[in-house]
Amino acid sequence: MTSHPQNDGAPPPLDRRPPPPVLLLRHPTQFSVLDRPLPDTFRFLKPWKSPLPLGDFLSSADARAAEAILTSGMTPVTAEMLRRLPGVRLVVTTSAGLEHIDVAECRRRGIAVANAGDAYSEDVADLAVGLLIDVLRKVSASDRYGRRGSWSGEGEFALGSKLGGKRVGIVGLGRTGLKVAKRLEAFGCAVSYNSRKAKPYVSYPFHSNVCELATNCDALVICCGLNEETHHMITREVLLALGKEGVVVNIGRGSIIDEKEMVQLLVQGELGGAGLDVFENEPNVPEELLALDNVVLSPHRAVFTPESLSDLCDLVIRNLEAFFSNKPLLSPVLDE
Amino acid sequence: MTVGHHMDDVDSSTSLSPFPKQQQQNSSLSTTQFDSPMAADPESSGGPPPLRRRAPRCVLLLRHPPHFTLIDRPLPDGFRFLKPWESPLPFDDFLASDDVRSAEAILTSQGVPVTADMLRRLPAVRLVLTTSAGLNHIDLAECRRRGVAVAGAGEVYSEEVADLAIGLLIDVLRKVSAGDRYVRRGSWSSEGEFALGSKLGGKRAGVVGLGRIGLEVAKRLEAFGCTVSYNSRKKKPYVLYPFYSDVRELATNCDVLVICCGLNEQTHHMINREVLLALGKEGVIVNIGRGSIIDEKEMVQLLVQGELGGAGLDVFENEPKVPEELLALDNVVLSPHTAVFTTESLSELCDLVVGNLEAFFSDKPLLSPVLDE
């Protein structure tokens, strides 16, 4: 009886064996927020329920039996951890991002890795565009204005700026970046991008250098993951190249942008505006931003709709089932 | 647009007439065309000569259009703008003055009415020009009766307005402004995770009024994975979106309504309590048309009672007044009628106003005439 990843019914027996042990580093919020129980086809090992500190817990016979690890974006899977759990053949993360997982070590050990795949990309793309519209058309700012009771006549609120005709540079043209691009086209924006490598089947103009992209754009949308190369990739230089009217939207990770420099440029009026869902030190938001009208602040909510959370929960379960039924993972992290 | 070429043509007696069509149609008048100040015009008893040959044409300016001031643009030369607010006379007396009775055109803005009475008192008026896309402030029937041409903002605003409609929708569904408020008051650090939003993709969106703006809205909605259907006066022949002849039926079958139609007798309070209840507790309404298309009092009540999921509003029944109850709601996004106000669209609009005035007074076709549908 082999499972089929697309079945909506109860999970089929997994190779007629006892439930595979899965090390659960942290209870996934996506399940608790939706009041969804974890499936009982797996035996979840929960370190926080043990009196032992994590280090000792990992040495226990129980933990050493783990064949998979389920983690979230907050809890790292290190080389050291993998070394101590030789039975692990799969790491599943509930996040799209992978910066908390030693992917290189996983590859060295032949450990498969699965992430959130496409579960979030539409929601994240929607919010990215929502933030861009908000900054350019001053939606939140005008809502504040209306609520203060300041509105007393036509045309007195500050002018917005049209989306159509804007040159928008996407940094990182992965699943999310492509969806952002498609939406921007419907608004008449001219899309170009920067990525590690040019994408062969994509017709948007490619810039190998993010500074060059910024020079040729009116807005930048940061859609890439965080890693060694992308850390503080959006420097002061890049932001200055974007210009006084330039807008930056970040739905990737806070540290992709040199936040201190960005804040300074916004305060000094050297950068036109910003729409930010992520910050270097969440939930701390630089105080200077709270006073600015040309900034829209979002508390890292890009993925949080019930629809995408539900999709994510399904995906996690199906990845685990597929793996233990020797079927292909639904959202494997592949070499690029 | 320039009118300079007219001057050269008029003084020659060659067949290079500025009015070639008229020459063909009224060949018996061809020799008189350049002689008399009133050239032949099939449309009237005598068309006016080109702009530069006579005194500036009088245009009654009901309100100084903010569209010009906001981008620091002066009103165009070549016209004499009669400004009621600069006169010591009360408006009625001002209209009766000789000066104003010579006005051949009226330039108005959204919310500043051109009534039948006004038209009756200004028999020389042959053009009503408005800076708005909306026409509900103009007595169109009376204009038609009097053969007065009407021109509006044409397509200048359609993309901008559609952009804002989508911006408001995303904001309500994904709680963008509410999230921004949450962060600004320090709640992210102190209270933790913010509320869930709701996904756009898969939502059934009903567009009310599938004109220029409605079509631009539909196109954008599709890019987000929404399913689009619509209600309009009549079904549109070349459109594939499902059509609902009854707006309540549309609401029953949708998660979101976007109001994109104009305001007239039929659409006034068209979105009533019944329609909003049909939209449902999770339903969202976005209005970038006119405030009075929605029964605002009912909508506010339903929002307060939790019978309607949320609203994104750029227009209100009694601008600039916004119902106080809305100010306390987190599931409402308020915009002070800014849908058309971007630097780019204002610039285009000013060009269009000037272009329409010049065209009209040179007997050229209007750039953005309002036609019967």
TrEMBL record, chain A:
A GO MF label: hydroxypyruvate reductase [NAD(P)H] activity
The D-isomer specific 2-hydroxyacid dehydrogenase catalytic domain, residue ranges: 62-333
Keywords, ordered alphabetically: Glycolate pathway, NAD, NADP, Oxidoreductase, Photorespiration
Domain D-isomer specific 2-hydroxyacid dehydrogenase NAD-binding stretches: 129-302
Region ranges (Disordered): 1-21
UniProt keyword Ubl conjugation, yes or no: no
InterPro entries in alphabetical order: D-isomer_2-hydroxyacid_DH (IPR050223), D-isomer_2_OHA_DH_cat_dom (IPR006139), D-isomer_DH_NAD-bd (IPR006140), NAD(P)-bd_dom_sf (IPR036291)
UniProt GO BP: oxidative photosynthetic carbon pathway
Coiled coil: none
Zinc-finger found in the keyword field: no
Family statement drawn from the similarity comment of this UniProt entry: Belongs to the D-isomer specific 2-hydroxyacid dehydrogenase family. GyaR subfamily.
Name by which UniProt lists this protein: Glyoxylate/hydroxypyruvate reductase HPR3
Organism: Eucalyptus globulus (Tasmanian blue gum)
From TrEMBL, chain B:
Cited InterPro entries: D-isomer_2-hydroxyacid_DH, D-isomer_2_OHA_DH_cat_dom, D-isomer_DH_NAD-bd, NAD(P)-bd_dom_sf
Region (Disordered) residue spans: 1-52
Superkingdom of this protein's organism: Eukaryota
Domain called D-isomer specific 2-hydroxyacid dehydrogenase catalytic: residue spans: 98-370
Native species: Eucalyptus globulus (Tasmanian blue gum)
Ranges annotated as biased composition (Polar residues): 12-21
Sequence ranges of Low complexity compositional bias: 22-33
UniProt name for this protein: Glyoxylate/hydroxypyruvate reductase HPR3
Pfam families recorded: 2-Hacid_dh, 2-Hacid_dh_C
